[in-house]
Amino acid sequence: QPGVMMIAEESTSWPLVTKGTDQGGLGFDSKWNMGWMHDTLKYFERDPFVRRYFHNNITFGLTYAWSENFILPFSHDEVVHMKGSMLNKQHGTREQKFANLRALYGYMWAHPGKKLLFMGGELGQWREWNNEQSLDWHLLDEPEHKGLRLLIADLNRLYAEHAELAASDADPAGFQWLEANDAQGNTAAFLRKSKAGERQVVCVCNFSPIVRDGYRLGLPLPGRYRQILNTDAARYGGGGVGSVEFVTAEQQPWHGQPLSAALTLPPLSTIWLEGPHTQDQPE
Predict the structure, then answer these.
(1) CA angle, 282 as apex, 278 and 283 as ends, to 5°?
(2) Structure pTM?
(3) How does residue 279 score in pLDDT terms, banded at 50, 70 and 90?
(4) Buried-most residue among 65, 221, 265, 272 (CB within 10 A)?
């Protein structure tokens, strides 16, 4: 049936769920990535001081990300039965909970896999979902909740505008780690590439509550990279740390890449850079 998707809410390691029946598979179009969901939520529930010991919670999923056509699910199952809402799962003060959740969503939208977010998660509800009540729309009168909803809108817009974030979900060639081993600093960085490799979105995450000044990021291509997302931006309710228009790749090898740039990473944040742009390209 054209336009119809068949999706498996499946939590085991049964193979070939999304492969065709002619290949011995079950023929589903997509499968929920329950392992990624559990690992990610466990990581963000932890105090950032101890996240260094659980860094593999945010890196391990990339060892099997292309074994199936995955959906990254934060579903109704995760916000009922005393599990807490998406906002209340986050560690820290009120301000830190919002920052953590914004950083999580920025990381999720850049990560390979389609996105599933259950109702209320885009508002930052404090209470669990209740099928007998309306969503807490009144929370949008508060700037932090309004900023979170605005972030989701911007993430969806950017996701639609940048094909490299979705077109290569089933192709490992569309993903590249830049920094996967900085457990001590609670940072991670990777890039998503178009099929030809000429356009890239770089995702840099700082999951610590500390500003990282002078954070050097390895980059594969020369030119200027435009900052298209900063989850700490004031428009989302953040502190506005690290907001710049462009960063320029310098002739300094780093992270196994021939070039690099120095960034300021806001606390509990995710930044996206898009490029590269050369000087003669229209901005």
Answers:
(1) 90
(2) 0.94
(3) low
(4) 265
Helix (H, G, I), strand (E, B) or coil at 179: strand
Residue 282 binned pLDDT confidence (cut-offs 50, 70, 90): very low
pLDDT tier, 199 (very low <50, low <70, confident <90, very high otherwise): confident
Task: Please provide the DSSP assignment of 23-63 as one string.
Answer: GTS---SEEE-HHHHHHHHHHHHS-TTTGGGGGGGTTGGGG
User: What is the CA angle 160-218-185, rounded to 5?
Assistant: 95
| φ/ψ of residue 276, rounded to 5 | -85, 155
Q: In this predicted structure, what is the pLDDT of residue 90?
A: 96
Mean pLDDT of 29-37: 95
Which has the closest alpha carbon to 274: 223, 204, 200? 200
How many residues are there in the chain?
283
Q: Which residues lie closer than 8 Å to 140 by C-beta, 6 or more apart?
A: 123, 146, 149
Q: How far is CA 272 from the centre of its chain?
A: 10
The answer, yes or no, to whether residue 283 has pLDDT greater than 70, is no
Pairing state between β 70-74 and 114-117:
parallel
| Pair type for strands 259-265 and 30-32 | unpaired
Measured distance CA(248)–CA(222) in Å, rounded: 8
* Cα(269)–Cα(106) distance, integer angstroms: 8
Segments of the chain assigned E as strands: 7-8, 30-32, 70-74, 114-117, 175-179, 187-193, 200-206, 212-219, 224-230, 246-248, 259-265, 269-277
